Amino acid sequence: MKFRTFMPLTLILVAIAAADPSQSTLTITATTPKVAIARHSEGRQFIELPDLEYQFLLEPRCSSGWEPRAMTLNIADSRKVLDGDALDEHGFLQASLAVPATQLAPLPVSGFCEIMENAGGKKTSGQITKGQGSAEYSEMAIKHSSALSLQAALICADGDTERTIYQSRTLAVALFCDETLARTPGE
Predict the structure, then answer these.
(1) DSSP designation for 103
(2) Number of domains in the chain
(3) Radius of gyration over alpha carbons of the chain, in Å?
(4) Which domain holds residue 40?
């Protein structure tokens, strides 16, 4: 109950701070990559993610009299550096950052994209029906809203003086079952 009372107050304070043009701000909007998953047997708890690419819409703003010197975007061990020339315009900027699968931990999920055994103990596939003697599938699509995190830093400069604005946010991944993908051997 205390959390619900606290949350609106926090949002109001953030909105007031962001509305002040003398403050440096960094606004980030990210796309959600879609990942196709093959159906698998019950009990599998972790999904290996493929390479992911995120697209970002960035709005870096330095305080009046300050200029953007650089910005970095980091996801896992992947990094993108944007120099001051790319940030010179006082508007929106688009950027992308690819994250190789080798940098991604398996994503824990349960009850997703599983083929459940029918009453006779046989693994089945086919129609999505419920009842005795038929296959029952778990959910067809889910969005994991905190699969990864992004760390961003905007460096604003006024002569030799620098100020860094940090932003951290979670990144989502959308998973969906793809009937055309082959199941892993033994399933």
Answers:
(1) G
(2) 1
(3) 22
(4) 22-177
